[in-house]
Fold this sequence. Notes:
Elements: E1 11-14, E2 20-25, E3 31-36, H1 39-54, H2 66-81, H3 84-102, H4 112-124, H5 129-148, H6 175-184, H7 191-200, H8 204-208, E4 215-216, E5 221-224, E6 227-231, E7 234-238, E8 247-250, H9 253-273, H10 294-307, H11 317-328, H12 333-340, H13 345-352, H14 357-371
Antiparallel strand pairs: 1-2, 2-3, 4-5, 5-8, 6-7
Helix pairs in contact: 2-3, 3-4, 4-5, 7-9, 7-11, 12-13
Amino acid sequence: MTKRRGHNEGNIKRRTDGLWEARVSLPGGKRKSFYGKTRKDVQDKLRGALRDIDAGLDLGTSRQTVSQFLDTWLAEVVKPTLAPKTHGSYAEVSRVHLKPALGHHQLTKLTPQHVAALLKAKQDAGLSPRTVQYIRVVLRIALNRALKWQFVPRNVVILTDSPKVSRTEVKPLTPEQARAFLDAARSDRLEALYRVALALGLRLGEALGLSWADVDFETGTLRVRHSLQRIDGKLTLKVPKTEKSRRALTMPRTLAVALRDHRDRQAFEQAAAGNGWRDTGLVFTNALGGPLEPSNVLKRFQAILAANGLPKQRFHDLRHCAASLLIAQGVPVKVVADILGHSQLATTSDLYGHVYPAAHRDAADLMDRILMTGG
């Protein structure tokens, strides 16, 4: 028997199978039903739905799973607007970590407990705190979009704790070690590449993306306009994503000399290759003119370090070294930030604010000279 609706309850009735049903009208003329064993069950569900509608939540997406939403977010938001490398990274986190653990949940029913359980499981599996933190960041960014699209009433990720990540101390080459490395790399076909990284702090992709059109020997300047990145398995030149990353830099004279020598060496290789030469216009190429494989560059770089008793470094650590050398010589942090292409001065200060111990002694000695009195 159908009972009369209570005041302000909406459309509630008892079905012939004994279940109670509440119906609510959605924007666009659609209707949504809620079911329960008692009148109170559906009444509570209806009241919650009315609150969500008042808050602007789209109840028509309530059956969408986390997996379905992540696929939509990656295709419609991340891929068209962010760098291919970023899209690839987010897609891998989604495929490897998020979808297997959370993908089957309905998006609107995802809870902080679900997210916390995922993060704990990843930590228990031995993933580093930084990796677990990154998984959380990707999910938080995705659910921020779900919140903006009014698919969910809140971002449940922000209600979970982020793993604590201890900052790894950067240990770049000392000035003595940097000179020893360059001496060891002398006459290596990539010597100029190492000098570009050490003298100007270029990222590996930026250095490998340099073309001869970017190098002006008359004015002594070098322009960073492209970065070599692997996109869909293919090495491709991409324009840097920020205006600060696209920059013109003044070359030290030693670098200009190294680049001239490198150009002569490349001309010899081109003549030797004959018709097999690929004219890419790049400064740093393989023996046939094509782009260099970054992993091969890293192996060659680390082999020189190991052969000469120098500490193991990532190629990116040459960028750290360049910044530290400049700061240790008293170059203003703002100038260092411009050379590195940082959009935020705080980034430079946080990452490269350390100086070598000798610089602290020099500063103390300078203060002694300033403040020393006749007594």
